[in-house]
Write a structure and sequence with these properties.
The complex is a heterodimer. Chain A is α/β, with parallel strands linked by helices. Chain A contains 12 helices and 15 strands. Chain A is globular and about 55 Å long. In chain B, helix 1 packs parallel to helix 4, helix 7 packs parallel to helix 14 and helix 8 runs parallel beside helix 12. Classes of the chains: A alpha/beta, B alpha/beta. Chain B: Keywords: Glycosyltransferase, Metal-binding, Transferase, tRNA processing, Zinc.
Chain lengths: 382, 324
């Protein structure tokens, strides 16, 4: 794989990653996003409906949390997870966790990391982890790491240091196991940058991880609510400054368009695209232009007209849906509102819900892909 | 603005759904059975009470047709007085005669007979005399098609097939016969043999949402452990997108996750199964080998002819098709 930078403007990197995939002939644009999946499929969408969307990302994100417990099945299948899920042509990145469902903290040890599937906790040592990856055969996979330094309010230096030490140890063990695996020669390990909110530890993590033969870097522990990312942006810049230019930088847990843009300005290349899914789950649809508005209140007035109540960027509008109890953002409209004249969504009805979710999700994913990233790049290319 | 007025503004149901093919709407009659505790029937119409806000709606033959006119569907159904097939006594007779009167009111109220086809619905429960009376009366009206109603509830299959056969024997040969609420694959094949043309049923899509895939030998409960490592498609002969791309093992995995995509895959397959089945039925009729098709279908589904359900064997025998 080869990353070519076309230009760098205000910290934003524009370029292409070439020679990707098993046959080495796939390309990805950066900045870019990965297709979010649950149990190996885009949420709510079949292959047919997914491909009605223009510009489906070349690389899909699989989560180990949804696949680890099916290790035996995949091992017996032998032909890799891409073929198993019906996406043989797609590039695949396997992350540890599902960004939408944060997992309980306190289960990382010096020897193992855990993920949570439907059936409960799956504990993985380096060798079990690598055995699972051998069965999956993804193009890229996140190395097991200690991502819990930022789980509590204040990271102690000691805890931050431990997260870096453990992650480097895991990385070295996994790299060694990869050398011994023929099947995984075509896969790239993504090294994980840890260190909590402690600057020296973050920089140490970046420098040390960069010394290893990883395919790219995952910036872990910067996610949270909008306020927490805000405070970590400075740290993010410092971290990416330590990383080699010619390897991709991924970040996890960041998917809102405004946050994506902030991270791009600080040297991040690839993002997860779970935001459309969260918007769908609260019955909303994404509607935003690619013009990044410095005055969000003004935009909302334009969008909604003055007769509607004025929604400010962080106004809370808690929805009744279960998994995504986050607040509605300024990038979306709430389809349950009477003004949209859709009485079907007024009542919760099991059988109609999945079809409606399917339609909304498709719409939102389309909007997210085309407006948040693809069109932005037109501003940069000469 | 809600309801039919909203749909009318959106260029009818076809425009609202963006569906360029045919649409059939029911009249609301079945809800007299499914929502019987929330409804009250009088000569005027059926009054429904909303369980959400206590609001009452009167659905009369006129109102039902008015709504269906606004929706603009290609086939519309009369409002009939429907009773559950397990009900006996004078209520069945009352409902049968009232359905005839309501048919006439629907015909009178229909504003778009040139664009929308109003079908009558034969009632009479499981009583041969009542059903025969209903048939005699309703066939005097000039409607473009007839539905056979009041069946496919909780009645025995023995009574069911006899009422279907009675109905088809007295309906005109040159107009469609629409058997409402059917159904399972076996029922479809048998009722085609008995002279029915059109069917509707929630079964294939509902069973899909519970993880069940329809196949020529019955169904596969894909959530079960036996499919965990089954890397074959649901049906190797099926050309639907699900069978083209996915294995039983993958669908099993997906069904055990919270991704609704699994339900979509199965829904698509089950609809394809139904369409393929009816297409095969039609081809066998055109090619004059329908009885052989039926024998083949039954032996695939049940194995031995003696294992075929008794009612089906009897029903087929009544039209000259013997199994093995």
């Amino acid at each position: 794989m080869k990353l070519n930078l076309t230009k760098v403007v205000n910290g934003c990197r524009l370029g292409k990653i070439k020679n990707l995939g098993k046959t080495g002939d796939c390309t990805m644009d950066i900045p870019g996003c990965l297709l979010y999946t649950k149990a190996g499929s885009a949420p709510h969408l079949t292959h047919h409906t997914l491909h009605k969307i223009h510009g489906v990302p070349a690389m899909a994100q699989l989560t180990l949390s949804s696949l680890a417990e099916h290790y035996e099945v995949l091992a017996e299948y032998k032909e890799g997870v891409g073929k198993f899920i019906g996406m043989p042509e797609s590039l695949l990145y396997c992350s540890l966790h599902d960004p939408v469902s944060p997992c309980p903290a306190g289960y990382v040890t010096n020897k193992s990391v855990s993920v949570w599937g439907v059936g409960g906790r799956v504990e993985m040592t380096a060798s079990k982890f690598m055995a699972i990856q051998q069965a999956l055969q993804p193009d890229w996979f996140q190395c097991i790491s200690d991502g819990e330094a930022t789980c509590n309010e204040a990271t102690s230096i000691k805890r931050a240091r431990k997260s870096v030490d453990r992650s480097l140890l895991f990385l070295d063990n996994c790299l060694k196991l990869q050398e011994e695996s023929e099947v995984l020669q075509k896969s790239s390990i993504i090294g994980v940058i840890e260190g909590g909110d402690v600057t020296e530890e973050r920089l140490r993590s970046a420098r040390e991880t960069a010394k290893r033969p990883v395919g790219g870097f995952l910036l872990d522990g910067f996610q949270g609510n909008p306020a927490t990312l805000e405070t970590r942006l400075h740290l993010l810049s410092s971290v990416t400054a330590e990383l080699p230019e010619d390897k991709p930088r991924l970040i996890c847990g960041v998917s809102r368009p405004d946050e994506v843009l902030e991270c791009i300005e600080r040297g991040v290349d690839l993002f997860e695209s779970f935001f459309p899914y969260q918007v769908t789950e609260r019955g909303c649809a994404l509607t935003f232009s690619f013009d990044y508005q410095p005055n969000p209140e003004e935009t909302l007035l334009q969008q909604n007209g003055t007769q509607e109540e004025i929604k400010y960027v962080d106004q809370t509008k808690k929805s009744k849906t279960t998994s995504c109890n986050q607040e509605m953002t300024s990038f979306e409209i709430n389809l349950k509102e009477k003004k949209f004249g859709n009485s079907v969504l007024q009542k919760e009805s099991d059988s109609s819900c999945s079809h409606i979710s399917e339609c909304i999700f498709q719409l939102s994913l389309q909007t997210f892909i085309t407006t948040s990233l693809a069109d932005m790049k037109k501003h940069w290319t000469p | 603005m809600q309801g039919p007025e909203l749909i009318q503004k959106a260029q009818g149901l076809h425009g609202f759904m963006n569906w360029p093919h045919n649409l059939l709407t029911d009249s609301g009659g079945f809800q007299m059975v499914s929502l019987v505790s929330l409804s009250e029937v009088t000569e005027e119409g059926v009054r429904f009470r909303s369980p959400y806000d206590g609001d009452e709606t009167l659905l009369s033959p006129e109102r039902s047709v008015e709504i269906q006119n606004a929706l603009g569907s290609d086939i519309i159904m009369q409002l009939d007085d429907v009773v559950s097939s397990t009900v006996t006594g004078p209520r069945v007779e009352e409902a049968m005669y009232r359905s005839i009167r309501w048919l006439d009111r629907c015909i009178a109220a229909h504003r778009r007979p040139d664009k929308q086809n109003l079908f009558a619905i034969i009632q009479g429960g499981l009583d041969a005399d009542l059903r025969a009376t209903c048939l005699e009366e309703m066939t005097k009206r000039d409607v473009p098609g007839f539905a056979i109603g009041g069946l496919s509830g909780g009645e025995s299959k023995g009574e069911f097939w006899r009422m279907v056969a009675l109905s088809t024997s007295r309906l005109p040969k040159d107009k469609p016969r629409y058997l409402m609420g059917v159904g399972y694959a076996t029922d479809l094949v048998v009722c085609v043999a008995l002279g029915c043309d059109m069917f509707d049923c929630v079964f294939p899509t509902r069973t899909a949402r519970f993880g069940s895939a329809l196949v020529p030998t019955g169904n596969l409960q894909l959530k079960k452990k036996q499919y965990e490592k089954d890397f074959r498609p649901i049906d190797p002969e099926c050309d639907c997108p699900t069978c083209q791309k996915h294995s039983r093992a993958f669908l099993h995995t997906l069904l055990h996750s919270d991704n609704t995509a699994a339900l979509h895959h199965l829904t698509i397959h089950n609809i394809a199964y139904q369409l393929r089945l009816m297409s095969a039925v039609r081809a066998s009729i055109v090619e004059k080998r329908f009885p052989a098709f039926v024998r083949d279908f039954m032996s695939t589904m049940y194995g031995d002819p003696t294992l075929c359900p008794t009612w089906a064997t009897e029903a087929l025998a009544s039209v000259g098709i013997t199994l093995g």
